[in-house]
Amino acid sequence: MLKEAKARIGRNAILLAMFDGEEELEITRHLDYLSWRYCKGKVGSMELQKIVAAIETAAKRNHVVDGELYREMHALYHAVVEAVQGVTRGQVELGDLMRTVGLRFAVVRGTPYENAAEGEWIAVALYGTIGAPIRGLEHETVGLGINHI
């Protein structure tokens, strides 16, 4: 069974990706209280591999995942791909379709279940814009991917 609503990993990842300023400080305090690991960043590209690389690099540099452990990188990769599918509405293509994204991302790692045996999970949230590679011709988008570690 999931912990209370404030300990839902996807919810926290989405809020972290979307918030800044005082709101961001509030969510990071909450994540620290839960003893969860997290990071956030920005990426813009027409190439999916650059998006994946930016998120993986941030997660490794901020010690959200251990880059030497295959299971951790594998879990992160699948969470990223699932989040990108949400952003691209299932067509995991950008440049080939003349689309570009400007995204803020958050990676959150924690224990969202009351039963400790359920272990750690990782969530990747993406929030930003997608559209034609012409400023002003984009719209908002959001994606979320969650995987067990």
Automatic annotation (TrEMBL):
This chain is encoded by the gene named hutP
Q: Name one Pfam family in it.
A: HutP
In alphabetical order, the GO MF annotations are:
mRNA binding
Name the protein family.
Belongs to the HutP family.
- Write down the superkingdom of origin: Bacteria
Q: Which InterPro entries match?
A: Regulatory_HutP (IPR015111), Regulatory_HutP_bacillales (IPR023552), Regulatory_HutP_sf (IPR036482)
UniProt name for this protein: Hut operon positive regulatory protein
Summary of subunit composition and partner proteins: Homohexamer.
Primary role:
Antiterminator that binds to cis-acting regulatory sequences on the mRNA in the presence of histidine, thereby suppressing transcription termination and activating the hut operon for histidine utilization.
> Gene3D superfamilies per the record?
Hut operon regulatory protein HutP
Q: Which UniProt keywords are listed?
A: Activator, Histidine metabolism, RNA-binding, Transcription, Transcription regulation
Q: Give a GO biological-process term.
A: positive regulation of gene expression
Q: Which SUPFAM superfamilies match?
A: Hut operon positive regulatory protein HutP
